[in-house]
Every structure is written in C-alpha cells, then in structure tokens.
Design goal:
- This protein is α+β, with helices and mostly antiparallel strands.
- It has two domains: 36 residues, no CATH class; 39 residues, no CATH class.
- Helices cover 28% and strands 14% of the residues.
- A hairpin with a 7-residue loop joins strand 2 and strand 3.
- The longest helix is centred in the first third of the chain and has 16 residues.
- 0% of the residues are buried.
Length: 90
C-alpha cells in the first residue's frame, strides 16, 4: 500500500465565543497538522469578528452566513451571490 504523499486542504471554519480559546486552538491545530508536514498559510488565514452585533457576513463554501435583523439575531444562511451567478452562467 502506497503512503499518502500530498494533501490539499483549502477551507476550514472554526467558530468560537471567546477569542482566547480560538487563538489557543488555532496554535494547537497548527502543531497537529505540522506532524504531517503541513502548515497554515498566514496570508489565507482570516479571523473575522462575527458577533451578533456585527454587520459582517462570511462567504463559505458557496453560502453566505450573516446575522438576521430580528430580535433573536438568528443566523441566516443563503446561497452566496457569486455562487448563484456562476451557476446561472452554465
């Protein structure tokens, strides 16, 4: 049986309530993947403030995640505009 030689991991999403926990786990994750000679790209790794009071949205795997404007501030998930536009071109 041949050993795995290459691994390409493009997208992963972590969600945390506390930034301190996130930074600790991000460092731990970096060490764990380092055992397989993999690294996190600093240029491609983004930390986004996604609290319920922020107006930020995230495009992730063809979907847009954002907080709703209702009283409960529920998480809204929709097909991203870019993904929909690309699909309609086909």
């Amino acid at each position: 049986m041949e050993k795995l030689k290459y691994l390409f991991m493009q997208t992963i999403l972590f969600a945390y309530l506390k930034i301190k926990e996130m930074l600790t786990d991000l460092q731990s994750f970096g060490k764990k993947i380092g055992k397989f000679s993999l690294t996190l790209s600093n240029e491609k790794t983004n930390i986004i403030d996604f609290r319920t009071d922020s107006r930020n949205s995230i495009d992730f795997l063809g979907f847009t995640l954002r907080w709703g404007k209702d009283k409960r501030r529920t998480l809204k998930i929709r097909t991203s505009k870019r993904s929909l536009r690309n699909h309609m071109k086909r």
